[in-house]
Write a structure and sequence with these properties.
With 555 residues, this protein is of the alpha/beta class. It has 18 helices and 20 strands. Helix 9 runs parallel beside helix 10 and helix 12 runs parallel beside helix 17. The protein binds alpha-D-glucopyranose (GLC) and calcium ion (CA).
């Protein structure tokens, strides 16, 4: 297995809108991030993944880009960006940009030109089709954010495809000019000195030529057999690798909905010349009573089974990215841990242990290192996210599902849980802004905030700091081989990591009750690398506290 910097790194995701506001307009911005670089350096992370900062009308908070080579007005200027990059590099922190090229904004100049006539040079940059008749779109596909995936455009009386919102038309990757323009833009950023790309829904860029109706389980049909992991996706990524990625010392991580372990070995194989790693979603796509919405927690055995399969099957062949949450997912501690006050800290530390000891590159989503929780939504008016707003309307207002039934499901998984402002201190608006924040601050900021945690050596923050530092000292955390133990346990996630003669035992309790546990012989008496509560591990028989986690190290 090749050794590389991005395998050894810990990555921190910033959602700029919600990170830090430097000028009091209530919106996080680039200078706010620059102001907080020392905080990130102190935490010890190596790489920042910046969610989109490009010019955008913000239909989907920057994932709808109208100019790839300009900065969003809300976030500052290109000068601010250059300063952020220089200041990050000065601290040995790299910056990975979000690359959103499955679609653009409908306000991008390519699309504005494309929609004007049937024969202009940009027409083929997007996916246009005749309707079945005047009222009926080309097929029954539904978009990710509700409604049909086709939008009728009066100008030329045809439909364009948008797998996301109507303001996010899909690019036509089969057009070589689209690929050339995207690659040129990527090189422009690389020449500026950025350190890599996180590629938005990159598994969706290649669509089949035929676009038949998809299976329905509700109003609309499923597009995924025709546009996820499509016919040319690997070809296009290999081309991107050859023309751009391979020319620079950068990393690439693909967001790949619908990816399997087999496909991951192609997308992110050690020798396939596509991407360095991919995000898979099996462990966060559970349940789904109403579309993606559910209030059910995934049983631990299923979670272990998924993670173990990815650990084992990618070993030596491809590289995992490890995450519990991001800007599209609820907060880790609320979802996989226990956010009741008595268990929040201990379960957040347990989750951190469990993830950082796995093989792959760990991603921390802003606020996760503080154990930030889901937001206590009171009403649909609290939502800012287009997906939550549209889904509530589609299921309840129009779809007649009762609010009482739907509410626990949508609030458990709403993307806005992750998007409330970063909690910096106990002052008004959690120190995020001196103005009015664009989305409400979680009222628990007086207890949960960075200032308090930095000052408390027992905090979740310091636990993360310790884990990150430990990774630098212990190559077994990075390169060791994974093995699951006690597969049948419904409450314990136990595994080992082995590198030559060195071995780690990782024990994590996902339970709120005490559990008796017998330490495997070979680890009895070995030193404890880290644990989230005070306990001793000298004797084989122990009683684990709720959400206890510890790691033993045999050399
Ligand atoms: C990805 C992003 C998400 C966005 C969508 C459309 O899934 O992570 O935030 O809404 O793509 O760009
Ligand atoms: Ca601002």
């Amino acid at each position: 297995m090749n050794k590389t910097w991005w395998k050894e790194a810990v990555i921190y995701q910033i959602y700029p809108r919600s990170f830090m506001d430097s000028n009091g307009d209530g919106i996080g911005d680039l200078n706010g991030i620059t102001d907080k670089l020392d905080y990130l350096k102190y935490l010890g992370i190596d790489v920042i993944w910046l969610s989109p900062v490009y010019k955008s009308p913000n239909d989907d908070n920057g994932y709808d880009i109208s100019d790839y080579q300009a900065i969003m007005d809300d976030f500052g200027t290109m000068e601010d960006f250059d300063k952020l990059l220089a200041e990050a590099h000065r601290r040995d922190i790299r910056i990975v940009m979000d690359l959103v090229v499955n679609h653009t904004s409908d306000e991008h100049q390519w699309f504005m030109a494309s929609r004007k006539s049937k024969d202009n040079e940009y027409r083929d940059y997007y996916i246009w089709r005749e309707g079945r008749d005047e009222q009926t779109p080309p097929n029954n596909w539904g978009s990710c954010f509700g409604g049909s995936a086709w939008q009728y455009d009066n100008e030329t009386q045809m439909y364009y495809l948008h797998l996301f919102s109507t303001k996010q038309p899909d690019l036509n990757w089969d057009n070589p000019k689209v690929r050339e323009d995207v690659f040129t833009m990527m090189k422009w950023w690389c020449d500026k000195g950025i350190d890599g790309f996180r590629m938005d829904v990159i598994s969706m860029i290649s669509k089949t030529k035929e676009m038949p109706d998809g299976k329905t389980n509700g109003l609309y049909g499923d597009y995924s057999p025709y546009s996820v992991n499509g016919p040319n996706v690997h070809k296009y990524l290999q081309e991107m690798n050859e023309k751009v990625l391979s020319k620079y010392d950068i990393m690439s991580v693909g967001e790949t909905p619908g990816v399997t372990t087999e496909l991951a070995k192609q997308y992110a194989g050690e020798n396939t010349h596509e991407l360095n790693m991919v995000f898979q979603f099996e462990h966060v796509d559970y349940g789904g009573k109403y579309g993606k919405w559910t209030d059910e927690k995934m049983p631990l055995r299923i979670l272990k089974n998924i993670i173990s399969r990815w650990q084992t099957e990618l070993y030596g062949a491809a590289w995992n990215s490890l995450f519990w949450n991001n800007h599209d997912q609820p907060r880790a501690v609320s979802r996989f841990g226990d956010d009741r006050p008595e268990y929040r800290e201990v379960s957040a530390k347990m989750l951190a242990t469990c993830l950082h000891m796995l093989q792959g590159t760990p991603y921390i989503y802003q606020g996760e290192e503080l154990g930030m929780t889901n937001y206590p939504f009171q009403s649909p008016d609290d939502f800012r996210d287009i997906e939550s707003i549209n889904s509530y309307r589609e299921w309840c207002t129009e779809g007649h599902l009762s609010h009482e039934i739907f509410w626990p499901c949508i609030t458990f998984k709403s993307r806005d849980n992750a998007r409330t402002p970063m909690q910096w201190d106990h002052t008004e608006h959690a120190g995020f802004t001196t103005g009015t924040p664009w989305i409400s601050v979680n009222p628990n900021y007086r207890e949960i905030n960075a200032e308090a945690e930095v000052n408390n050596p027992d905090s979740v923050f310091h636990y993360y700091k310790k884990l990150i530092a430990m990774r630098k000292q212990n190559p077994v955390m990075v390169y060791g081989k994974y093995q699951l133990l006690f597969e049948e346990s419904e409450e314990l996630f136990v595994y080992t990591r082995t590198l030559e003669t060195e071995k780690l035992l990782v024990v994590c309790s996902f339970s709120d009750r005490e559990i008796t546990f017998i330490i495997p012989d070979e680890f009895v008496g070995t030193p404890c690398l880290i644990s989230n509560i005070e306990n001793t591990y000298d004797h084989p028989d122990i009683v684990l506290h709720p959400y206890e986690a510890f790691v033993l190290h045999r050399k």
